[in-house]
Amino acid sequence: MVGGTSDKSSKPATQAVNSGRRKEWTGAVVNPPVWRGSTHLYDDVADLRVGVKSNEDGKFFYGRRGSPTQWSLADALTEMEPGAEGTMLYPSGVAAISCAMIAVLKPGDEVLLTDSSYDPSRSFADAFLKRMGITAHYYDPMIGADIASLFTDKTKAILLESPGSLTFEVQDVPAICVAAKKADIVTLLDNTWATSRFFPALEHGVDISIVAATKYIVGHSDVMLGAATTHQKYWTQLRRTAQQLGQVASPDDAYLAARGLRTLEVRLKRHEQSALKIAHWLKERPEVGVVLHPALPDCPGHEIWKRDFKGSSGLFSFQLPDADEQSRAAFIDALDLFGIGYSWGGFESLALPVDPEKYRTANPWSQAGKLVRLQIGLEDVDDLIADLAKAFEHYNNQPS
Ligand SMILES: *Cc1c(COP(=O)(O)O)cnc(C)c1O
């Protein structure tokens, strides 16, 4: 049969092409069409009654439960994550993180978050969860198995992010998950940087693997979408909570994400190669201090990255040890091929000033100078290097 779902034993590139493309969802065309709809029509009242009762995945019910367009994407993401039972889609990455946390926490619980967490994850914990009577504590991302020393009998969940998306510490995810499992604590990982392609999270012990699909899955900077994938133990809980909170990803957005997914393998490889070339080039520049790229020895957790990851993607930071706010801005402003903006994972390169000292609480950030974060896109890498070289020239010639 042509199309249809791929074999679980297929290689990643084959899975990226074929997964989720069930004949019943695609019909005669290659991509599952966009099924827009709120109302799903039933044959008769008896049929309607059956639909209400079953709440099955992949069955028509009502627009909020999705249509073949969303089911196909969710199915593909499940298939690409070894050990997974199912995937819920959300209208953004932040929605995926917050809803997954709500699914596993209740008033009175404590949750541990890595100090390298994405800032909106922190805000969700510090503002919303606090209001719900759930207390957040932050831990050093390099804590490893010692995380057990932070457990109380109220600790119910851990939010990991590896590498951190500003400072890139690679966490000892397996060690943290072993400790958590012993204490019956749920582990949630923000896996946006690596995706299941470079870090199959559930295989490393994670319970719920979350991605901002907005980034690499969509890949074209034109859609907001989140996904949470989990194994059997938490699947019903995750799914029911998303339904109760009314979470739905639009069919148009799911369609575009599925389209992006088909080229994920080639895009990630190109992001990887170009980012590595630029990271090594930056390391040789006299203006640059540490290069926080998981595949370079400067990066905390580099050895763990070598042990656990199948690759590296296109996002990393570097330090300008002599920079202040103004000279860093002058460097970034002098770039022509790098846009200035949030988000990443699209085809285009981006540069962003990042200031981890503003967020950290468990282990304050005290490196000299300033950090710049780069998202390396799919442009010709030598053009990007020439652009960076030109910006350094400008940086070095600023009036003091
Ligand atoms: C962007 C991002 C998110 C949030 O995704 P949105 O789709 O923008 O809500 C979560 N985690 C990380 C690491 C991100 O970079």
Describe the structure in your own words.
The protein has 400 residues and is α/β, with parallel strands linked by helices. It has 2 domains: 12-261, Aspartate Aminotransferase, domain 2; 265-396, Aspartate Aminotransferase, domain 1, CATH 3.90.1150.10. The chain has helices at 12-18, 23-26, 45-54, 68-79, 93-104, 119-131, 173-182, 195-198, 232-244, 251-261, 264-283, 302-308, 325-333, 381-396, and strands at 86-90, 110-114, 135-139, 155-161, 186-190, 208-212, 226-230, 291-292, 315-320, 339-340, 350-354, 370-375. It has a 7-stranded mixed sheet with strand order 1-7-6-5-4-2-3, sandwiched between helices. Strands 8-9-12-11-10 form a 5-stranded mixed sheet, covered by helices on one side. α4 (68-79) runs parallel beside α10 (251-261), α5 (93-104) runs parallel beside α6 (119-131) and α5 crosses α9. Residues 92-94, 118, 161, 165, 190, 192, 212, 214-215, 224, 226, 343 line the site of pyridoxal-5'-phosphate (PLP).
Roughly how many Å is the radius of gyration? 22 Å
Query: Outline, from the CA principal axes?
Result: globular
The name of the CATH superfamily of the largest domain reads Type I PLP-dependent aspartate aminotransferase-like (Major domain)
The helix content, as a percent range, equals: 25-40%
Distance between the termini: 68 Å
According to DSSP, the number of beta strands is: 12
Main β-sheet description = 7 strands, mixed
Instruction: Just give the CATH class of the largest domain.
Output: Alpha Beta
Which quaternary structure do these chains form?
single chain
- Hetero compounds: pyridoxal-5'-phosphate
SSE-based structural type: alpha/beta
> What is the N-to-C order of secondary-structure elements (H for helix, E for strand)?
HHHHEHEHEEHEHEEHHHEHEHEEEH
- Total number of distinct structural domains: 2
Count of helical stretches: 14
CATH topology value of the largest domain:
Aspartate Aminotransferase, domain 2
> Mean pLDDT across all residues, rounded?
95
Strand content: 5-15%
